[in-house]
Amino acid sequence: MKITRMKTNRIQSPLGFDLRTPSVSWTVCETEAKKQIAARVEVSKCSDFSELVFDTGVSKTLSSLGVKLEFRMEPCTRYFWRVSVTNEHNETVVSEPAWFETGKMDEPLCGKPISPDLSCDIAPYFRKTFTIPGKVIRARAYFTGLGIYELFVNDKKAGEEFLAPGCTVYDSWIQLQTYDVTEYLHEGENVLGAIVGNGWAKGRFSFGSEPGSYETNFPGIPANNFTEEYLLLGELHVWTDMGEIVIATDESWQSAPCPLTFGNIYDGERYEQALEIKNWASAECTYAD
Fold it and tell me: Is residue 165 classed as helix, strand or coil in its secondary structure?
C-alpha cells in the first residue's frame, strides 16, 4: 500500500499561496483493499515531525478528498505534512512528507513601489546590485508590478509564470508572487532585475474599444485605467550562515529604457533589439544610469 498525489488545495507543494485554512488530500494505491477505515494527518515545521503544530489524531471520519488544516499559520513559513492510512485489512501505511509554504499573508512589505526616472510611456528595466556576505542557505523573493513584470536574479528568470501579477481589480487588490531563488544566488555580488511592460492595469484594457498600433505608437482606448506609470514592488529575503539580509525596492534601484517600445495585452508588442543592455541583470553589466 502506498500514498501518492498528496496535494494542498489541489496543488502539489504550493509555494507562497494565500493559505488561510488549506485542505489536504491524497490517493492510496498499490493495494487490494477497497476502503480507508481510519486516517491521521500531522503537520510540522520540521521535516522529521519532531514538533507538531497540528494533529487530527487517528480518525474514522477523515476523507482523502480533503481534510482542513484548522490552525493559525505564520507568514513566509514552510509546513510539512504527512498522512497515515489504515484500510479494512488493518494494514497501515505512513506517507512520505509533503509540504506547502505560506506567502506574506497580512505581513506588510518593507519595500515601497518604485517607478522609473523615465517618461511614463517608456517601459523600463529595473536593476539592483547587492552583496551577500555569507553562504546562501535559502532565499525567497516576494514581488509584484504594474502593468505586467518579469523578475530576474543574476540573469536568470525567477519562476515559470508569465503575465504576472495577473488580471485583477487593481484598485481593490493585487496578487503578490513568491519565488524560490535560492539556487540563483551566491556569496558576493548579486543582481536583482525586472522588466515591466503594459498589461491590464497599464495599457489598453477593454473589449470593443479602439485598438492600439505598433506602427504609430497609438496606445489604444481606453488605456491606463489603474495606473499612469510603471511600478515595481517587492523584497528579497536571503538567509545565510551569517544571518538574514533583505533587499527591498527603494530609490537606490537603477532604471533604463527596455526594448519593449510598444505593447499591450490585445495588440501585441514591438521589441527593438538595439535597445538591449548587455548583461543588464548580472554583475557584468557596465551600463551607467
Answer: coil
Report how far residue 278's alpha carbon sits from residue 285's, in angstroms, rounded to the nearest whole number. Answer: 6
Tracing cell 515545521 back to the chain, one arrives at 45
> C-alpha distances in angstroms, 259 versus 1, 114, 123, 137, 161?
55, 20, 8, 35, 20
Give this prediction's pTM: 0.91
Q: Max alpha carbon distance in the chain (Å)? A: 74
Instruction: Kindly give the pairing relationship between strand 15-17 and strand 98-102.
Output: parallel
DSSP 22: -
185 contacts 139 by C-beta, under 8 angstroms: yes
Q: Specify burial of residue 68 (Cβ count, 10 A radius: 0-12, 13-18, 19+).
A: exposed
Closest CA to 227 of 166, 171, 144, 151: 171
Name the residue among 193, 191, 197, 192 with its Cα closest to residue 124: 197
Residue pair 284/191 in contact (Cβ under 8 Å)? The answer is no
Average pLDDT, the chain: 93
Q: What is the DSSP string of 126-168?
A: EEEEEEE-S-EEEEEEEEEEESEEEEEETTEE-SS--SBT-S-
CB 271 within 8 A of CB 262: no
**What phi, psi does 183 have (nearest 5°)?**
-70, -15
Q: What digits encode the pLDDT tens for the residues 163-189?
A: 999 999 999 999 999 999 999 999 999
Phi, psi of 51 (to 5 degrees): -135, 125
- 223 in Cβ contact with 205 (< 8 Å): yes
